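Shipment paperwork, digital attachment
Item: protein structure file
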Amino acid sequence: MGARSIRLLTSAATIFYEMASRRCRIGPGGLQSAGMQLSETVQCPFCGQGFELVIDTSQPTQQFTTDCEICCRPFEVVAECEPGEILSLDVLGG
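Attachment content:
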């Protein structure tokens, strides 16, 4: 391994350590704080079981499909957010 490779690995380790110590991550929109993620309890529209979802509040509007942790049926989640706050969270059955 050459000196340049060692410098690159050292730089990557330093960046990883700094991100971990600040509780940051790199997502689709770039570097994000872990404080932008909130957990919210939702109820499966099929079996009625409640469980927690983690919502990234740095994205103003989100729509995604997830599976129930109990009955494994897929359902749609629509979230409206402001940074650090969930404004609305809707669960839609298929």
